[in-house]
Amino acid sequence: MKIRSNRGFTLVEMAIVMFIMTLALGTGLTLLSAQQDQRKVEDTASRLNDAREALIGFVLAYGRLPCPADPTIVSGTTGAGLETLTCTTSTSTGGVVPWATLGISETDAWGRRLTYQVTNNWADSTDGTGMASCSVTVGVSFQLCSSANMNILSVVGGVNLASNIPAVIVSHGINGLGAYLPSGQRILPVPAATTNEGENTNIDGNFVSRPLTSENETGGYFDDQVIWLSPNILFNRMVQAGKLP
Questions:
Q1: What does the pLDDT read at residue 106?
Q2: Rounded Cα–Cα distance for residues 230 and 226 (Å)
Q3: Bigger pLDDT: 88 or 77?
């Protein structure tokens, strides 16, 4: 007569099964989180491109770039998302993209406002400020011989990837450090000016654009997405539209 064994799992076997299940669940959640972050990166890239195209459209309509919006004004209150009226000096002004003025999304895919900096003599309301040597086109803030004062760097303190840039837009990425929220509050801490991300928050005319980096690389961790308006593209669009000679 055969005796059927009903031996169950031992505690060790159960522990091994639980470990494997936990490991599989953790791996799955990590992959899901990475996929979600990648989708937000792609969505943000699309929003940045929309913002750049909106800037070009604004220039074609008004002959100048818009000033930044005040980043501290709460969404839904007076002045939120509207360009300020103080871009009238020869330096650059920083703030956030004037989303209401341009008719675009207020934030990136993480719900943070987009940082925006503009060379002021490309955003004032005068005709060719300081451009006596140019053939000045009436109603246009900048001319074909205009120069801007911002640079795109490969790394903080590094070489220029692009120069003579009139406008820059930044999403501060996954960590959001230095970005402003719709509440008007800033995400702290603001990165140190000596870091890659800090270069994109200190309004000094230099910005860093590079792939994602880790903490121990030159300039530290970096997850910002940066886009800029090339003066040559802008000149070309203006000439094609008959706005510049």
A1: 98
A2: 13
A3: 77
Residue 16 corresponds to which tokens in the numbers above? 């091994």
Q: Give me the residues paired with residue 83 across strands.
A: 69
pLDDT, residue 154, reads: 93
Query: In the prediction, which pLDDT does 28 show?
Result: 62
Distance of CA 66 to the CA centre of its chain: 16
174 and 222 Cβ atoms separated by less than 8 Å? no
What is the model's pLDDT at position 133? 43
201 class by beta-carbon count within 10 Å (0-12 exposed, 13-18 middle, 19+ buried): buried
- Most distant CA pair in the chain, distance: 112
> Token digits for 200?
């994109």
DSSP string spanning 30-91?
Answer: HHHHHHHHHHHHHHHHHHHHHHHHHHHHHHHHHSSPPPPBPTTSPTTSTTTTPBPS---SSS
Q: What is the pLDDT of residue 21?
A: 73
Q: How far is CA 132 from the centre of its chain?
A: 34
